[in-house]
Amino acid sequence: MSDFPADPADFTGARVLVVGDVMLDRFVYGGVERISPEAPIPVMQADREIVMPGGAGNVARNIAALGAEVVLIGLVGDDGAADELNDVLTLERGIDARLVVDEARRTIEKIRFIGSRQQLLRVDRENRAASTPAAIDTLIDAAKGALADCAVLVLSDYAKGALPDRVITALIVAAKSSGKPVLVDPKGSDYARYRGAYLVTPNRAEAALATGESCADDASAVKAGRKLVETTGIANVLVTRGAAGMTLVQGGDAPLHLAAEAREVFDVSGAGDTVVAVIAAALAMKRPLPLAARLANIAAGIVVAKVGTAVVHPDELRLALHMPDPHGIDAKVVSRQQAKERVDAWRLRGERIGFTNGCFDLLHAGHLALLSEARAGCDRLIVAINADSSVKKLKGETRPVQDEKHRARLLAALGLVDLVIVFPEDTPIPLLEMLKPDLLIKGGDYGIDQVVGADIVQGYGGEVRVSRLVAGHSTTATIQKLRS
């Protein structure tokens, strides 16, 4: 990929306008241990709930996660769900939400109940009444006003009422008159309503519905794309084809086929939003469409390895571009948010998560004994290491001998270790609260009640162990031996 810029994952300064059907996604998690006596259905004991932006809101969330700025415009009702949606959007850095209230509608809400790692039920709350003319006029005016400061327009169409034909036509005309490309995540079979768009991104089923072509192979995907370009006035078509990758059809140019990048697939929900987001951010950086499509293909491979409507971060894109092996050393050194996403995926698979922490300044036999015992008690082992600033507080100004980057990479090189996290706090308690490992293990000559975080892990039913030190092996002893 020599045609990539020096840092293809740098979207600093990109500004995108997203208009479409915004929703509130609610996830209710819990355990299932019995069947209801009232009916042959599982009884879920709910223990936690997560809310996040959905629909067009998830597209905006993906764009913001890349480091770009995004203006989000859509319709909501005058209700509590709208208040929640505005609250969660406020917490999303980089999103300027300008939601239009339509008192004739209710805010679209999707509630998913997940019990013991299995989705049991989805409940949709919405009304199908047409949006009021006044609300539509307000939405069009808001979008035209925001377009002046944005480089790209995305229309995120879920056929929920925010994008009737007159909105689509008005915004495409406005964007084209100012020389700004329009990307459409389409719905339905009539793509003529998107006439004038720069790019549409149907998945395989959507492209087949719109064209009558199967899109089961490269040739039929190209045929579908050509048919859309020739009959609808859309300049380019990107057909996303799941495990078969993507096919980009550009007017009279040769088609571009991109093989799927995913190594592991946990959840494909939201992958289309990620594709649109990456292409929009890349085009806002003035990058050519084929290059933007390559980046989007790589991002899709990353996001389907996560659980739920996840996002892709710039560091993950950089890693995928320069370190294609997903199990390589650098792939194991992650941020805490990336660790949370990996842990969620492992849990979905039913794997047991282990956790240990320390300075790990100079690796020695005692460290290896601890790591071996920890790995024997779990399927996945996370090692959290103190940042350099934290080591100095604990060990003095002459420590650490090796900086945090080298300590992390040395641990990541071990087959015993699955993830390494560097933490700046004095204790790993914030990480334990976030990741909730099944096993916490520490090396030392003390009781379990003296292990930092033991009460937290035991509080949710996890196990805590103390691994006895290997006599004569410590970093301090090694340093003293070298000095003598």
Quick take:
The chain has helices spanning 56-65, 80-91, 133-147, 165-177, 204-211, 218-232, 271-284, 289-303, 314-322, 329-332, 336-348, 365-376, 388-395, 404-412, 429-435, 454-459, 475-483; strands at residues 15-20, 22-35, 42-55, 69-73, 75-76, 95-97, 100-101, 109-115, 118-125, 152-156, 182-185, 199-200, 236-240, 246-250, 256-258, 353-358, 380-386, 419-423, 439-443, 463-467. It is of the alpha/beta class and 484 residues long.
Low-confidence stretches: none
Q: How far apart, in Å, are the first and last alpha carbons?
A: 52 Å
Shape: globular
Strand order of the largest sheet: 6-4-1-10-11-12-13-14-15
The beta-strand count equals 20
- Largest sheet properties: 9 strands, mixed
Strand content: 15-25%
Global mean pLDDT: 89
Helix content: 25-40%
Instruction: Tell me the structural class.
Output: alpha/beta
Instruction: Give the number of helices.
Output: 17
Overall radius of gyration: 25 Å
Write the layout of secondary structure elements.
Layout (H helix, E strand, L loop, with lengths): L14 E6 L1 E14 L6 E14 H10 L3 E5 L1 E2 L3 H12 L3 E3 L2 E2 L7 E7 L2 E8 L7 H15 L4 E5 L8 H13 L4 E4 L13 E2 L3 H8 L6 H15 L3 E5 L5 E5 L5 E3 L12 H14 L4 H15 L10 H9 L6 H4 L3 H13 L4 E6 L6 H12 L3 E7 L1 H8 L8 H9 L6 E5 L5 H7 L3 E5 L10 H6 L3 E5 L7 H9 L1
Parallel strand pairs: 1-4, 1-10, 2-8, 4-6, 5-7, 10-11, 11-12, 12-13, 16-17, 16-19, 17-18, 19-20
Antiparallel strand pairs: 2-3, 8-9, 13-14, 14-15
Helix pairs in contact: 1-7, 3-4, 5-6, 7-8, 8-9
